[in-house]
Each structure stands twice: as C-alpha cells, then as structure tokens.
Amino acid sequence: MVIFRNIEAKLQKYLFSGKAIVVYGARRVGKTTLIKKLQEQYSRDSLYLNCDEPDIRRALTDKTSSELVTYLGQKKLVLIDEAQRVRNIGLTLKLLVDNAPGVQIIATGSSSFDLSNKIKEPLTGRTVEFHLFPLSLTEISTDLRETNRLLPTRLVYGSYPEVVLQPADPEETLRGIYKNYLYKDALEYQGIKNPDLVEKLLTALALQLGQEVSYTELGSLLGVDQKTIASYIRLLELGFVIFRLPPLSRNLRKEISKSRKIYFYDTGIRNAIINNFNPIEMRTDTGALWENLLIVERKKRNEAMRNFPNAYFWRTWTQQEIDYVEEEGGTLHAFEVKWTKGRRVPSTMWQSTYPGASWQIVTRDNYWDFIRAIDTETGQYLERA
Questions:
Q1: Which of 15, 108, 289, 385 could form a disulfide with 31 if both were Cys (CB 3.0 to 4.6 A apart)?
Q2: CATH 3.40.50.300 in the chain, residues?
Q3: Cβ atoms of 98 and 125 closer than 8 Å
C-alpha cells in the first residue's frame, strides 16, 4: 500500500521549474517511496541513483560538469537518494542545475545533509526545500471516525510508515528505528564520540515532555556544560528527532523569555526512548503526548501548505500559559491543547497583553480542522483517500 503524502501536491508544482528539489527527512519516513512514486510518472526518462551504493557515490564525487551531464545521459528526471553520502554533494548539485537546465534534479537526504551548510552554501537560490516527516493523521486516514478510534494507538506507537503499514510488532520496529537509524548520520558526520551522552540526553528530554527545559539543569544532570547540551540538541534537531518551541516574549517583566519546550517528531520514538508502551489508560503522560502529537501534526500541516508561521509557547511568571502560539502576518493565534474535556476560558493576562490575538481550545472534539492541510489556491484539502 502506497500512501499519498500531503507534500506531493506542492512538490509537483515545482517540477521542471529550473531548481533542484531537496527533500529532507529522517531515515525510514518514506523519502525513497515518495521519489520512486514520482519516478513512475516518467518511466524511461528517469534515473534513480542510490547513494548508499559505492559506485554511485564515486560517479557523483569530484566530477566536472561535463562528466556529470554525460553520466545522466538523456534522462529528464534524476532522483538522487540519500545524497548526504556523497562528499561535497552541494557542489555536485550546483553543477547539475547550472549545466543541465532541462533536467529536474530531486535529491533526498537525512540529517547530515544539512549540517555545516554543505548543501546550502553552493546551492543558494537554486533549490526548493521540503521536509518529510512520519505520516500525518490525515495521510493515514481521511475518515475522522477511524482516526478517533486509533488516537490511543498513535499516541503510544506514533506514525512511522512501518509502524502504520506493518503493525504486527510496533514496539520492536520502533526500537529498531531508534537504535539503528534515527540519529546515526548526525553522529557519524559530526564525529560525536559520546553516543551514550546522546541517549541519556534523549531520555531526559523524553521524561520532560511538555515541560520547560533548562540547558543548565540538563548539563548538571548529565555532567557536561551548557554549550555541550546546546550543541547536541541542535544535532538532534538536524536529525529530525526533536524540535524546539521558544517562548513568546514581548513584555519581559511578565513573560518567561529564556526557557524552551522540546517536542519529538514522533510520539512512538519518544516512548521507545523511555521504553514505555503502556496503553493510554495506564499512563500519567497522556496530556503531554496529546500536546506533542497535535503540535507536530500542525507542523506537518504547515509544511504541506508551504506555510511557515513563527511558533511559540507562552507563559508568565505568575504561571499563566498558552501551549502553542502562531504568529502570521503580524497576528497572533493562541491554541490551548487539552486531552480531557471541560470548559475553559483564555488567560486574562493573555487577553490584556495581546488584545488583537485569537484564542482557541483544541480538544478531541475539534482537532481535525487544526491539523488538516488546505490548498490555498483551490481551498480543497490536500489529503487524498
């Protein structure tokens, strides 16, 4: 079964636009499946290059533009998979874009692809970038009733394609992804010599899900300095394991300004890190998992729409808080994420500090509209049955 990915609609619009398309994402999220699906549309006019193969890497490394163009032959669509494996891949892609103008290059890469500006520096102005994440809820099913029924499963096991499509042993699958794939590229290419520290840091972050995180406290807990913590967290972000949510702070006397929240791109991976696959009714972290799930689903929605608002959380020194805030076009939109039902009103300080901002509570009753991606040109939902 091949699932339609919501970024496909926007990606298709950039084909043969004169720019390389780069699809970033962690391993095992479906990058290869996505580009091979595109390849089917062009059949004999396409070329798939798997950079895990040594001969492919040699063919793309330290070559002149003439050698590269000759290697591609008469192909119109060239798919370069796991391109981070090629040394100086940014320069190779630049030469292809500049010297093969009729050819559409699509490259995929995991974390290290974006490290140290090895891609971006040579390719300034020559690429369109997409990020592919684990499956979104609307990609898995467009049936709201079915999605509601499986929400507890998604909270515990997440939405990596293998977990969704081959659900016989999700715990073993998730442990395998976590241990064998998730952040290995970042460690390898950055020469990290203390992988045990990375695992301890991930465990600490997983246990603080939904809470504010202090680099100083993490450093004290793990026996390293604050700069080391910051560096490792940045690597884990580049590996699409976690992402940070900074605080919204426009009034420094009232608002928290220096902390941050950290979420996981997949709740199943988070649970694998702490080895807790207990069902929802036996957990004490359901609210935090729900908050994580909806915020990452919102990120997936925004990526599919090519919509990139500034995102924050908000809290005051008097403990008034908002889980998630987006700023777009100069307007703030606040969202309170709650698993349990109940009547709630917006923070009085939020209303007085930001009188022009919107406020909405997102629960199991109304989350569907919060996460669905819409084509801004047609007004139609991007997902397909």
A1: 108
A2: 8-131
A3: no
Q: What letter represents residue 193's amino acid?
A: K
Rounded to an integer, what distance in angstroms lies between the CA atom of residue 118 and that of residue 111?
Answer: 12
CB 29, CB 133: distance < 8 Å: yes
Q: Domain 8-131, CATH 3.40.50.300 — does that match?
A: yes
Joined tokens for residue 67:
């050698």
Cα distance between residue 303 and residue 300, in whole Å: 5
Residues 50-86 have pLDDT tens digits of: 999 999 999 999 999 999 999 999 999 999 998 888 8
**Burial (0-12, 13-18, 19+ Cβ within 10 Å), 135:** buried
Residue 30 CA to residue 131 CA, distance in Å, equals: 11
293 close to 267: Cβ distance less than 8 angstroms: yes
Question: 270-293 pLDDT, tens per residue?
Answer: 999 999 999 999 999 999 999 999
